[in-house]
UniProtKB/TrEMBL annotation:
Residues 266-409 form the DUF5000 domain. Keywords: Signal. The keyword Signal applies. The keyword NAD does not apply. Residues 1-23 form the signal peptide. PROSITE patterns: PROKAR_LIPOPROTEIN. The lineage of its organism: Bacteria, Pseudomonadati, Bacteroidota, Saprospiria, Saprospirales. This is DUF5000 domain-containing protein. It comes from Membranihabitans marinus.
Length: 414
């Protein structure tokens, strides 16, 4: 009997507690549904940032929610905000919206996103961090290093150091060309030797290095322009393919054999029948003329005697030139006169042994095979036409004629 009474009282107590708890829960829940159940607009599913120069592109992804028509974006502790109208396209599971916020301060910002629907409901806010770049970032950018910048006859050549900056993407070269046009040349970072077919109007160029601070960046940033002065071109071998015969009245006639012609002395062949000789006799002194093809300030030239490879008995002998002069002009007299010619240098063939005519050592032959090189005075003018005036040959009895195998010139072409 006692056990039954205890069970009854315990059951009654539990029932009372449950009723009281349910009453309190209903009271608490009732506060939230007094004005109806709370409805939220769909919040952004994805948010992607694309940084720029004091601006930021934002791509927002929303799940299918046709009533969503607006989004508010806040930053700077809600002191700044924008509102975008949305027109969802729900042909797929997710629709994306792109927009750009302009005139935003450089730095890292926390952005708050809240959508709204046509009924005026708002979403739960979504916070995320985005980066904006500006003058502070730009001022930190460095230019790629230049090893050398050299002017060429018809262009320029720039050699680069490697680029240690991970976000650099390339280089821009700016210059005004010789006809007054602005030219821009893009250089990739894997290029270490840039040859440009075109000269600047002055002696310098400007360049800057381009950067993308982020793979998603919408703006390219540039280091400040840097000026590079071009080194004047140094002496280079003149292009023999431009050379040509330029016979004038009074010049020596060619030796009357078909393969003996002036063109042979710039064919880069010092063997066999590839030689030039004047008529016999041609007079003493005698001369011949040719065109370099370019106007150039000459610095040195090399001459090879006939026979240095194929007929050693002619070396330092016969009609190989011993003493001569080189003259230059840019406007030769049509009548073959000397009025417009300038003497550039006087030369004498060098014989290492110093032995007299008729005696030649192995050292002499070896030297002759390499060619006899002569320097021009530093003050010689740039010229286009060359006249070789011969006074004496190695065999004094042959000075009324001459021959040679090859000639090469080095200088600065204009």
């Amino acid at each position: 009997m006692m056990n039954s009474l205890i069970k009854y009282l315990f059951s009654a107590l539990l029932a009372g507690l449950f009723f009281t708890a349910c009453t309190k829960m209903d009271h608490t829940y009732a506060k939230f549904i007094e004005d109806g159940e709370k409805v939220y607009s769909a919040k952004p599913k994805t948010i992607d940032f694309f940084p720029g120069n004091n601006r930021l592109k934002i791509r927002i992804g929303l799940v299918a929610a046709p009533n969503v028509n607006k989004i508010n974006i806040y930053w700077n502790n809600r002191n700044n905000s924008v509102e975008w109208e949305l027109e969802p396209d729900f042909s797929g599971d997710t629709t994306f919206f792109d927009g750009i916020i302009d005139d935003i301060e450089e730095g890292r910002h926390t952005f708050e996103f809240v959508t709204s629907d046509k009924a005026g409901n708002h979403s739960i806010k979504v916070d995320t961090v985005g980066m904006v770049y500006g003058e502070d970032y730009i001022s930190s950018l460095k230019n790629r290093g230049v090893k050398s910048a050299v002017a060429k006859r018809e262009g320029m050549e720039i050699k680069w150091f490697d680029t240690p900056y991970e976000t650099a993407i390339g280089v821009e070269i700016h210059y005004q060309n010789t006809v007054g046009e602005q030219s821009v040349v893009d250089v990739s970072l894997d290029e270490f030797n840039t040859v440009i077919e075109g000269r600047p109007a002055g002696d310098s160029i400007r360049y800057r290095t381009a950067y993308l601070p982020d793979s998603n960046a919408i703006d390219t940033f540039y280091a400040g322009f840097q000026t590079v002065h071009l080194t004047p071109p140094g002496p280079e071998p003149l292009d023999k393919s431009l050379f040509s015969s330029y016979p004038l009245p009074g010049d020596a006639e060619n030796y009357p054999v078909s393969y003996v012609k002036l063109d042979n002395i710039w064919d880069d062949d010092i063997t066999g029948n590839s030689w030039y000789g004047t008529a016999d006799p041609a007079g003493n002194p005698h001369w011949f003329t040719f065109d370099l093809g370019v106007k150039a300030k000459l610095t040195e030239y090399t001459i090879w005697q006939r026979g240095v490879v194929s007929t050693l008995s002619l070396v330092y002998a016969h009609a190989n030139m011993k003493k001569w002069e080189l003259w230059g002009s840019n406007d030769p007299d049509a009548d073959g006169g000397w009025e417009n010619w300038t003497k550039l240098t006087e030369s004498e063939s060098h014989k290492p042994s110093g032995l007299p005519f008729g005696e030649v050592t192995p050292e002499d032959y070896e030297y002759a095979k390499k060619g006899d090189t002569f320097s021009f005075p530093s003050d010689v003018p740039a010229v286009k036409y060359i006249r070789v005036k011969v006074f004496e040959t190695w065999d004094p009895g042959k000075s009324h004629r001459s021959f040679l195998q090859e000639m090469s010139f080095k200088g600065i072409a204009e």
